[in-house]
Design brief:
Shape: elongated
Order of helices and strands: HHHHHHHHHHHHHHH
Structural class: mainly alpha
Number of strands: 0
Number of helices: 15
Helix content: over 70%
Amino acid sequence: MSTSTETPEQMQSLERVENPNLRIYITLGLVVFSMVALAIVAKTHLGGVNISPGIVLLVITVLTALTFDFLNGFHDAANSIATVVSTRVLSPKLAVAWAAFFNFIAAFLLGTAVAKTIGKGMINLDIVTQYVVLGGLVGAIVWDLLTWWWGLPTSSSHALIGGYAGAAMARAAVVWGPSRAFDVILVGGWTKTLIFIVLAPIIGLLFGLALMVSVFWLFRNRAPQTVDKWFRKLQLLSAASYSLGHGGNDAQKTMGIIAGAMLTAGVMSPADFKANWGHWEWPIILSAHAAIALGTYFGGWRIVHTMGSKITKLKPVGGFCAETAGAATLFGTALAGIPVSTTHTITGAIIGVGATQRLSAVRWGVARRIVWAWVLTIPASAAVAAITYWIIRLIHPGA
């Protein structure tokens, strides 16, 4: 039996907007592009082309990073729009345009503290090459695609850091020996990230629960129709706030990867890297936010359905509370430089809101599947990235 809260007209709109093969086409294109690019790099090493292989590889890496950023927005569109779509406050097309706009303008509001953590706070840069960055990105993209196909709202952010770590450990195992593979991990940066894998959904849940209880109490004497009318308007603000937090948090992770690639290529100086990336600062920031905004615009409707209706049914007041709780959490962590999962945060908030009705209002079976996917994300993307790096090394032993 269907538990969807969308109207037939909205479901038809979802079917029209979604292109199930879009990610497959993008991935095949990326694979072909990467094969051609690696062939060009190999040829430059053999002296057949008068072009710097480092620059060619940097272009490949940056384009792959921006592709991941686009797919991140595509995969995580549900985070920003599921509640506003499932409550029927906005149509799917308007919802993705609304979310994409605020994803982009987050570039001017939430700084780059998370990007600095990703770029230099998690992996020992002595072992990082552009091939490591490329392998990490491929690992993250593959896991993102698989979870999109399965309809699971897992964390693209944790797929990225898992892939980055997996590729770095694979190179460390080759260069330093298998026993030192874990030496590339900077414990300080990973500690707060791993802690917030647990804390982010709990904070979202508690905020969502507290907000929903407060709203119930404050509006207990108001007619349901009046409350619904007010919160339909307020949910536009909460959706915008959550999209700001989503763009400000997730786009920064790709910025850190791009900056690290530019450092290893010698394009960015160590002094600029440690400061604010010099004259590369705004090109990096704007390109990352543009990519994630475009990805959000094209959306990921399979995951929207899971987030918006399969976990728990939502009304506008519930959507407002879930998005506001998620936004508050993301603003705080972004400014503190903690790379949290936007997916974890909004899912916890939705569960907290649903639990105020009754515990049975939450589809715990779906929630368990999502949790298992979260647990597997970092090791799975790390494994794919390690394999990718070893394949690259077979093609180019100097990688």
